[in-house]
Specification:
- By secondary structure, this protein is α+β, with helices and mostly antiparallel strands.
- The chain has two domains: 222 residues, Rossmann fold, CATH 3.40.50; 110 residues, no CATH class.
- It is 34% helix and 23% strand.
- A nine-stranded mixed β-sheet has the order 4-3-2-1-5-9-10-11-14, with helices on both faces. A three-stranded antiparallel β-sheet has the order 6-7-8.
- The protein is globular.
- The two termini are 33 Å apart.
Length: 385
């Protein structure tokens, strides 16, 4: 009995410590960083968070997980102190575990939720990113992260995250704003914030956006606007960003399926990519990624189908901003953005058989392209309790 009482008292004190002085709805935000060769940039981002991590701004808990190629990995809490001070309070040691192992991601999230329960949760991923492209295809060591030559496959990553847990997922990583990724994560979060193009290593302006992430009603347009404005006035003014409403992705998939019209792969193979708005061109990839709206609008001349698809796309992506051009590290090109729906897509190329084989494993392909698709079995996002 004595041990039970001690445990209960400890748990109560921990919960009270996590709430600090805020007595409204709380949120736990987890920043999950795989440092790779971005260690200095990520540490600067964390320092920027610390600089605004006051009791007034952090209405709940700010947690940071970071891992590096030397096996250093830990989860800690940034704690606002007296007179503007901050401290890093260790929550759990994950030494020897890889940040790109989906089991690590699952365990980190479980630890965060168990130790710091809140009314809602937010998740930020920071590292390298290359959209949906698989981690196990020759010449395309791609997905999320990168640690000792290993990456985290997007499908495994989405599976590692509990359904209906997060208010938002934000990717501070290149090219993660694709329909394939957003659709894969649609059951994990209410809002999906990302860029379909490359992100300058400076990353997101956390000094500006972090307090907004803790507001009971997050203004996602403000977060996206702060990101876009930051890069409009930056030395390298190349950026684009979108906010996806996950609850509208099923209806978007249904509209896209009607645009495909039952033709399946053949409809996608027939798309002329030379006329499309390119949004991402990755090292080692045999295919570029193009604007979703631009690509799927080219599938049909039927006015009603096009209008329906445009409406569903606007509902699914209510915020889509850009600086007018984006940067492609492959070839160091500056590409004008003339048409922008907020998400990219991979239009399958008939000769890329190995890549297409991997693509067919994704939910977007299954629900939209395969045999004309069938989304009747897909349940829309139910929200977070």
């Amino acid at each position: 009995m004595r041990h039970t009482l001690i445990y209960l008292l400890s748990a109560l004190l921990m919960m009270l410590a996590g709430c600090d002085e805020w007595d409204g709805p709380t949120r736990t935000v987890l920043y999950y960083a795989v440092k790779s060769n971005l260690s200095s940039d990520i540490e600067r981002n964390i320092s920027d968070m610390e600089s605004v991590a006051t009791k007034e701004n952090i209405k709940g808990n700010l947690l940071v997980f970071s891992s590096d190629s030397k096996g250093n990995a830990s989860l800690y809490r940034i704690v606002p102190g007296k007179n503007g001070s901050r401290k890093r309070e260790t929550v759990a040691d994950f030494s020897g575990r890889s940040g790109v192992d989906p089991r690590t991601l699952t365990d980190v999230i479980a630890t965060a939720v168990e130790r710091f329960p809140a009314d809602s949760y937010g998740l930020i991923f920071s590292s390298h990113g290359t959209s949906w492209l698989p981690a196990d295809v020759e010449r395309m060591q791609r997905a999320f992260g990168e640690e000792n030559g290993q990456w985290m496959d997007i499908r495994a990553m989405a599976e590692a995250i509990p359904d209906n847990l997060f208010e938002f997922i934000l990717f501070d990583a290149c090219s993660m704003g694709s329909i394939e990724c957003a659709y894969e994560f649609k059951d994990d979060c209410l809002r999906y914030i990302s860029s379909p193009s490359e992100i300058i290593t400076t990353g997101f302006p956390y000094k500006t956006i972090l307090p907004e992430m803790f507001n009971p009603q997050v203004d996602y347009g403000r977060i996206a606007g702060a990101y876009n404005s930051f890069y409009e006035n930056y030395a390298f003014p190349y950026a684009d960003i979108s906010v996806v409403e996950s609850s509208h992705l099923v209806s978007l998939a249904e509209a896209a399926r009607r645009m495909v019209g039952g033709a399946g792969d053949a409809a996608i193979y027939a798309i002329d990519t030379d006329t499309l708005q390119m949004l991402s061109s990755l090292y080692g990839s045999p295919s570029d990624l193009y604007d979703l709206g631009d690509t799927y609008m080219s599938l049909s001349a039927d006015a009603a189908l096009r209008a329906d698809f445009a409406t569903r796309l606007d509902e699914a992506v209510p915020v889509a901003l850009h600086t007018g051009q984006h940067y492609c590290g492959f070839g160091e090109r500056i590409i004008p953005i003339d048409r922008f729906s907020g998400l990219s897509v991979y239009p399958m190329r008939e000769n890329l058989t190995q890549l297409n084989s991997e693509y067919r494993k994704f939910k977007w392909y299954r629900d939209v392209i395969a045999n004309g698709g069938d989304t009747a079995h897909v349940t829309p996002q139910q929200g977070i309790k």
